[in-house]
Amino acid sequence: MFSDDLLAQIRARFAHVETCPFTGPRIFFENAGGALTLNSVVDTTTRFAGIPDNQGRDNPASQALVKVINQAREDVKVLFNAPGGAVLWGESGTELLFRLVQDACLGAEKGGVVVSSTVEHPASRSACARWAAMTKRPHVLVPHDDEAGTVSPQAYAEVVTPDTRVATILHTSPVTGMGNDVAGIARAIRAVSPDCYIIVDGIQHACHGRIDLSDAVIDGYVVSPYKVFSRHGYGVAWASDRLTMLAHDALVGGPDGNWELGTRDTGAYATMSDVVGYFDWLGAQVSDATDRRARIEAAGAAIHAHEAALTKAMLTGIGNLTGLAELPGVRIVAGADNSAREGLVSFWIDGRPSGEVVAALNAAGIRTHMRKADHYSGNILAPLGQPDCIRVSLAHYNSLDEVRAFLAAAKEIAAQAG
């Protein structure tokens, strides 16, 4: 775990770590719904919002904006460890998933099928359902393991056929909290359908670090910056060279391979550079690496280790505080002992509506969230026969003291259910 001194430095770099601007002091365990924002992002947003100039003009201010944009693209490539390809900004992560899936389906060889998995967020599944139908292809779903909360390369291998034209993969589930083996799944797809376009939803995974597209043999990777320490209002994606070569929505006579439409917010690009700079800074605190990518990798490893320690304490207990997994009536989605977990625990309490539990935790000053068996989470909860659950999502700026406070509150709430 991070030392107390380093954790204090980390927390000082984020806005509203301990206090909600509307309700006062609180513990923030709703990071999967949107992570805390870097103070540097807040400052950068304010600074760029006041600049009147646009890109593409023959003046020094415009040229400075273009430099910021180009730097942001390079920064994202370093963060993703992405070989070649293009980095694009869009309306949101969901919108970019739809765009990448659309262009892959329209540009792929005719016929064949489109493949997703049942563990996926509706963003990628809905995009595949729509564009499979629009291009008159079957949409085939790979079943996930309900007990483990994951989907395996083997599960894909059993479903993918040589005529699979487009496939999507979820990196990490925002409901189960489990990460999937993206590289292994991609290799399983390519072994059967070498020319398949493979697009990955990395939205939930990004804030936990450790993105590496160098050996993932994929064609698209999408993140939502507000879930990785930036702000709302834009999405970021990487697209391979061959996906970029396909036709896109574009202005007649415009440059080939251009993904973006209209004049973009330069501040959005600049704030993503702030995020990459933060990972770089953290990597320098936890390693002696001199290479920027190596520092980012070190930051990802340290984030994973810190979050794993927090979730273990939450599940198994700390000191004289009983862990969630041992509280009477508590059921853990995807099991308490699951090595795929990434900073998130979803659970329910027998005999207690999840909405009441979330409200009780709120009253105790702990921010969590209820997931319902609706179009967002029904794919996970319905097979478990569960109408809802409580999601507790951590990030690397959370502390053991915050976990202690949560466990004390959870013990009292669980006792009331009995």
UniProtKB/TrEMBL annotation:
<dbReference type="Pfam" id="PF00266">
    <property type="entry name" value="Aminotran_5"/>
</dbReference>
<keyword id="KW-0663">Pyridoxal phosphate</keyword>
<keyword id="KW-0808">Transferase</keyword>
<dbReference type="InterPro" id="IPR000192">
    <property type="entry name" value="Aminotrans_V_dom"/>
</dbReference>
<dbReference type="GO" id="GO:0008483">
    <property type="term" value="F:transaminase activity"/>
</dbReference>
<keyword id="KW-0032">Aminotransferase</keyword>
<feature type="domain" description="Aminotransferase class V">
    <location>
        <begin position="27"/>
        <end position="406"/>
    </location>
</feature>
<dbReference type="InterPro" id="IPR015422">
    <property type="entry name" value="PyrdxlP-dep_Trfase_small"/>
</dbReference>
<dbReference type="InterPro" id="IPR015421">
    <property type="entry name" value="PyrdxlP-dep_Trfase_major"/>
</dbReference>
<protein>
    <submittedName>
        <fullName>Aminotransferase class V-fold PLP-dependent enzyme</fullName>
    </submittedName>
</protein>
<dbReference type="InterPro" id="IPR015424">
    <property type="entry name" value="PyrdxlP-dep_Trfase"/>
</dbReference>
